[in-house]
Amino acid sequence: MKLSRSALAADQTHHIHPFSYPAAVREGRFRRIVERAEGVYQIDSEGRRSIDAVSGLGCVNIGYGREEMADTIAEAVRTLSFHPVFWECTNPYSAALVEKLDQLTPANMQHFFFANSGSEANDTAIKLVRWYWKLQGKPQKQHVISRDMAYHGMNLLSASLTGLQPCHPQFSLPIAGVSHIMAPWSWVNGADLDDEDFGLRAAQALEDEILRVGPERVGAFIGEPMQATGACVTPPASYWPEIRRICDRYDVLLIADEVVTGFGRTGQWFGQQYFGFEADITVLAKGISSAYFPVSAVVLNTRVGETLSTNPEELYHGYTCSCHPVGAATALKNIQILQDEGLVERVRDHLAPRFWQRLEALREHPLVGEIRGAGLGAGLQLTADKASRSFFPEGSGIDALVARYTWDKGVIVRDLGADTVGLMPPFITSDDELDQIFSALRHGLDRAL
Ligand code: PLP
């Protein structure tokens, strides 16, 4: 579809864009106008083809514009364009997705509730935690502990869980009953310790907070196995197993927000498998449908799921489009593509090793302080001084500058803030495209120096 002048003017004047500077949009300073996308490429209004090295927002894992996805979605729309799974109803698409997920997911993922976004799914997870503890006769266990730098979404509750400070003041957040502990960000919090000791210290912050709030009041801890938006903070191996032990010690439910890590980003189907732990509740979105249709899910282990799914009372929670038949068909086809093409194995065995080899080659670059991540996801921590680990002055926008210069060479990377540049290429990226990504990134780094 071509963009008309009048539509662009309407967008400029009447569209309040998320995570944008409204005044810049009003002045027509759009960063990019994308008209089409295919494979790993976005094609903009000036006809430029850029490799999308961040898979949209860490979601388009199977690549853009796939014919078989279009066919599947069209067929589902023709057959059953809507049907609510409310009031004890179901349909072939929704049921087939549940069957597929049940077969695919590890033993701690047993019961599924569906929503349309990561934000809704995280809100749902916390509501289910509250209800679970009430059913257990512990209604006071309502407090949730999250982490600084976390990104869990933008609804009132999920934005409260989010630990990126700029997301709070405009909306008087966080709401009561949510607190944050330090992120397992060794670059900032762990200069004095080796990785493994730092992981234990970062996990200790959870125990300290549980004891501060009172274990009888803490219902859950939530974290992304590897943070994405939050500077790609990635904990050392000692962190998650210790978090699991602490949650068990104080009878606190562990929620893994796998909105980004779920469905292969780490080279395992789920980030918990990569980091070696099992959550009680897992939150999925993005990669479940590669964002061809908005689909998200909250997955409960047997302990929580059996309690909730055998309760005789009505569940007073749900969304019009929960497990939408077209969404279910989309997710099913996406999962089938991941399986048929062995894309998760491709990430693990082929792409990730090459990706990290190329990342390692950037470590000596004067701007690069640290490289964090797992599988096919990484963040480059830029620094003004490697020895003192110093940040650039507030507002320098160094990561945006690197992203801008990288784009000059036809590759889209993401400025994550905190002087960090993020990379999350699609799972179908070829070796040649991977080389192009890194040659453009090196150009971006050199120019920003
Ligand atoms: N959780 C994580 C880890 C995310 O990265 C995101 C979005 O980027 C969300 C939750 C929120 O998802 P949504 O934007 O679909 O509401």
Automatic annotation (TrEMBL):
The keyword Transferase applies. Its cofactor is pyridoxal 5'-phosphate. It comes from the Bacteria. The keyword Transferase applies. CDD domains: OAT_like. GO terms for molecular function: pyridoxal phosphate binding; transaminase activity. Keywords: Aminotransferase, Pyridoxal phosphate, Transferase. Pfam families: Aminotran_3. Belongs to the class-III pyridoxal-phosphate-dependent aminotransferase family. This is Aminotransferase class III-fold pyridoxal phosphate-dependent enzyme. It comes from Kineobactrum salinum.
